[in-house]
UniProtKB/TrEMBL annotation, chains A, B:
Organism: Streptomyces xinghaiensis
Superkingdom as given in the UniProt entry: Bacteria
Keywords: DNA-binding, Transcription, Transcription regulation
InterPro entries membership: HTH_LacI (IPR000843), LacI/GalR-like_sensor (IPR046335), Lambda_DNA-bd_dom_sf (IPR010982), Peripla_BP_I (IPR028082)
MF (Gene Ontology): DNA-binding transcription factor activity; transcription cis-regulatory region binding
Pfam family of the protein (one): Peripla_BP_3
Residue ranges, annotated region (Disordered): 318-344
HTH lacI-type domain: residues covered: 16-70
Protein name according to UniProt: LacI family transcriptional regulator
CDD domains: HTH_LacI, PBP1_LacI_sugar_binding-like
Length: 344, 344
């Protein structure tokens, strides 16, 4: 009969509800519910009528509502700084693979390094009852998450620690990595070394600067404050900082670029110069080995950060209630040429 | 009083429900609902008791449930091929910015080029009542989406068209772009040109191959089938394909690499060779200009693809019900050196 042909009134409309199905089938809501949930007590004829109505309306059982009743949405929220930063690609993929292995969906958002936007995203995710959160924090006060965590939303921070909140966190050892990179430049004869990093309110930027200072101090080398520049990683700022250090009164002979965004711009600036300048960058990046010279980096394992954070999160979701833990992953120096240039 | 102090029983538990609040406040469920929804008919004393219970339990009103009642989840699902492929970074970010401008959340997933996984993700998103979907399809039969679209889930395909389904789609002109890239190599004197592309079931791979053949035919050049290789983009396969073409009986003097994953491996393979081989790649990539030689590419605007798809989606969500449309964006040739090398 005509009822079995799907004839939606319009292409993009509001989803049909169980009520619509009941009206079309000429039965009560309870009957539709029984059919949808495979419960007994409905005659075969009526089952068929309801099924025809379901088919005709394109009705789909509302899984979200069912999951809400069970108290589990099987989804996790991931808040990053920037979806387009290649550093976060392997991290996101690792989290996604873990979520998939646990049958959970991934909800994604970028804070754009804006603490207010981070908060909005996190709370929007919580309001949608994610089971857990993995957050690369932009802000430095995460007390707003206390009620959410208390209410059962497992939360793991990654890449940077939370502020004013006791929670699980997975970090790379930025301090030791930067110290090793700068010590590497010193071992190759450099005495005047510039440091270009991210915004000073970002934990990793501060830690890497601390590593730079420790390496310089460890070698008995003074630091001219003109050699240190923290700020946004946009190319114009980084280029200006590099130029000031390279063309100043006491020009540096080497640069330590404290993340992949800075390194890419530093490479561009140095490629236009005749005097060779040594360079070590924090974070590895694609094709770093094919540049001339190859770019020496302090590599962190972004995929391992994501995997570790996801493992921690799912252990929490499985009921682990030991105190929050800080996990720190090591870095790895990869010499490729740019960090082994002697002072000119 | 003690009730106003938050004392959750455990750190990671199940979320408290309205029923828990009712039990703690010693009132009925309807009363809690009235307080939560700001409805009249509750005495100030009782309101205070309910509020204390809410605070003590860390209860949060269930926005998802409220939104479900309104029939709008204010979220869109984005299904990509691989979160870690740099091509999708700007595309994702553009979609996220558009979603944010419309107050919608972004749910993200990767198909890993697996049609079954694409289908699972899409249906999981639908079951969670996303308002709309943006899909980079992995499969070639999307009839499974018909009931969802009929039920009101706006769907836009991007980068590749859907199979057996009439829907909005935003593409790059792969055919014209590849034809221009290969014609560029021919204009620089090449007659034997290799083509290395993605899996033949991927629309863009087929379109780019079609462009290659059209350029060769347009110049009256025969194509030796040993010069054409389609397959997965993993480095081992691409390297083997390049070697076979470069070291074969009729070695090619130029390569056209049909996406950024292929190009990066082709650059690696060519960097180890003494005989110069010309190269044009489809897709721009970071640092392409700093390699030696710089890599000539056919650039597509991934951010514009994302923006256009999102604009289309939100127009649909605003009620536009004109027939599905195919939008094709142009490519841009960027000569940087590798594509201008003469045959050796």
């Amino acid at each position: 009969m005509a009822d079995s042909t799907r004839t939606p009134e319009r292409r993009y409309g509001t989803r049909p509800t169980m009520k619509d199905v009941a009206a079309r089938a000429g039965v009560g809501l309870k009957t539709v519910s029984r059919v949808v949930n495979g419960e007994p007590g409905v005659t075969p004829d009526t089952v068929q009528r309801v099924r025809n109505a379901i088919e005709a309306l394109g009705f789909r059982r509302n899984d979200s509502a069912r999951i809400l009743r069970k108290g589990r949405t099987a989804s996790i929220g991931l808040v990053l700084e920037d979806l387009a930063d290649p550093f976060y690609g392997p991290l996101s993929r690792a989290v996604e693979e873990a979520a998939r292995a646990h049958g959970a969906l991934l909800i994604h958002g970028s804070s754009a390094e804006d603490p207010e936007r981070e908060r909005e995203l996190v709370l929007a995710f919580c309001a949608r009852r994610v089971d857990g959160l993995i957050v690369v924090p932009a802000g430095d006060d995460h007390r707003y998450l206390e009620p959410e965590i208390a209410a059962g939303i497992a939360t793991v921070f990654v890449d940077r620690p939370p502020g004013l909140l006791d929670a699980d966190v997975v970090l790379t050892d930025s301090y030791a990595g930067a110290r090793e990179g700068v010590a590497h430049l010193i071992a190759h004869g450099h005495r005047r070394i510039g440091f270009i990093g991210d915004l000073p309110r970002i934990h990793t930027a501060r830690e890497r600067l601390r590593g730079y200072r420790a390496a310089m101090a460890g070698a008995g080398l003074p630091v001219d404050e003109a050699w240190v520049s923290l700020g946004p990683t946009d190319p114009a700022r980084v280029r200006a900082a590099a130029r000031a250090m390279l063309d100043g009164a006491r020009p540096v002979t080497a640069l330590f670029s404290a993340n992949n965004r800075v390194t890419v711009t530093a490479v561009r600036e140095l490629s236009g110069r005749t005097r060779p300048v040594a360079l070590v960058g924090f974070d590895d990046f694609e094709l770093a080995d094919l540049l001339d010279p190859g770019v020496t980096v302090i590599a962190q394992d972004a995929a391992q950060l994501g995997r570790t954070a996801a493992d921690r999160l799912f252990r929490r979701l499985d009921g682990a209630d030991d105190p929050p833990e800080v996990t720190t992953l090591p870095t790895r120096l990869i010499p490729r040429g740019s960090g082994e240039l002697p002072p000119s």
